[in-house]
Amino acid sequence: MPPVVTGIERISIKDTQFSDGTKVKKGTLIMACHIVNHLDPNLHDNPTKFDPNRWLDPESKTCKSIKEFPGSFIPFSIG
After folding, report:
1. Which of 63, 44, 47 is nearest to 55 (CA)?
2. Which are the contacts of 3, defined by CB distance < 8 A and separation ≥ 6?
3. What is the pLDDT of residue 12?
4. Which of 40, 55, 69, 72 has the maximum number of C-beta atoms within 10 A of its C-beta?
């Protein structure tokens, strides 16, 4: 579990549409929740299991995900 579980909040400054088709109107509060990425089995093997060794194997799904998607693990925000 990440030490920070709150999201990154932003207010949309214009009407927009995400790549999945989701529409967001100007003025809408948007929150990216870190924990969703951290528990995604598409990005991490056994995401609910505490396994520090996953960070040591460069071939693990977690290490590959972080290289391909830097936002897949953001315990203290993305910097």
Report:
1. 63
2. 75, 76
3. 94
4. 72
- Characterize the bridge pairing of strands 23-24 and 29-32: unpaired
- Contact in structure between 47 and 40 (CB atoms under 8 Å): yes
User: Three-state DSSP class for 74?
Assistant: coil
pTM for this model (two decimals): 0.58
- CA-CA distance, 47 to 38, in Å (whole number)? 7
Residue 47 CB-density burial (10 A; 0-12 exposed, 13-18 middle, 19+ buried):
middle
The ranges of the chain with pLDDT < 70 are 1-7, 76-79
Q: In sequence order, what are the beta bridge partners of 24?
A: 16
